[in-house]
Amino acid sequence: MSYELGQRCETALGTLLQRRMRVTLYEELVAGIGRGVDITSYPILSGLARLGPVTAGTLGAEVGLDRSGVSRHASRLETGGLVYRRQDPDDARNSLLVLTQEGERVVGLLRERLAGMFGEQLASWPREQAEQFVSGLERFVRESHHRSSANPQGEEPVSSGEAD
């Protein structure tokens, strides 16, 4: 039974994570925000809110972009007054991307919008089913995060050569 559930999960998550699904979600989410926030810069803003002051390279690794892509999007957010750069105190050759107060306010607004969008979608579900779904998703993410933290490079575990 767990293999069948795994297949169903793979199919559902594969669909959910497809670019067109994210684009549709992000378009609705960022509508009317302006200030350099669009479907391409939203992951930068969101990732920066999660990670705090961080280099473009580190942020890029988190959101799946290269350093130059992060810098390009961050420059638009900087022009919009949502992000600024400061020297990295640990390495003067690097700069850190930091949210401004206005950037923090916009992230708060975006998170409220996103929670509202998800809440709207779940509103038609029976309350118990919605609760179980969210609890299960939280657990799935927590356990997946733990597994990825234990194997940060995404490498396959090395087999001892013995049968499991």
How would you describe what is shown here?
This protein is mainly alpha-helical and 164 residues long. The chain is 63% helix and 6% strand. It has a single domain (2-150), classed as Arc Repressor Mutant, subunit A (Orthogonal Bundle), CATH 1.10.10. It has helices spanning 2-16, 19-30, 42-51, 56-63, 67-79, 101-122, 127-150, and strands at 83-87, 95-99. A two-stranded antiparallel sheet has the order 1-2. The longest helix is centred in the C-terminal third of the chain and has 24 residues, at 127-150. It is globular and about 55 Å long. This is MarR family transcriptional regulator.
Mean pLDDT value: 89
Number of strands: 2
CATH superfamily: Winged helix-like DNA-binding domain superfamily/Winged helix DNA-binding domain
State the secondary-structure class: mainly alpha
Major beta-sheet overview:
2 strands, antiparallel
CATH topology: Arc Repressor Mutant, subunit A
**So, CATH architecture?**
Orthogonal Bundle
Low-confidence segments, ≥5 residues, pLDDT <50? 155-164
Question: N- to C-terminal separation?
Answer: 20 Å
What is the count of DSSP helices, taking H or I runs of 4+ residues?
Answer: 7
Q: What is the number of independent domains?
A: 1
Helical residues, percent: 55-70%
GO molecular function: DNA binding; DNA-binding transcription factor activity
Domain HTH marR-type: 10-142
Organism: Haloactinospora alba
InterPro entries: ArsR-like_HTH, HTH_MarR-typ, WH-like_DNA-bd_sf, WH_DNA-bd_sf
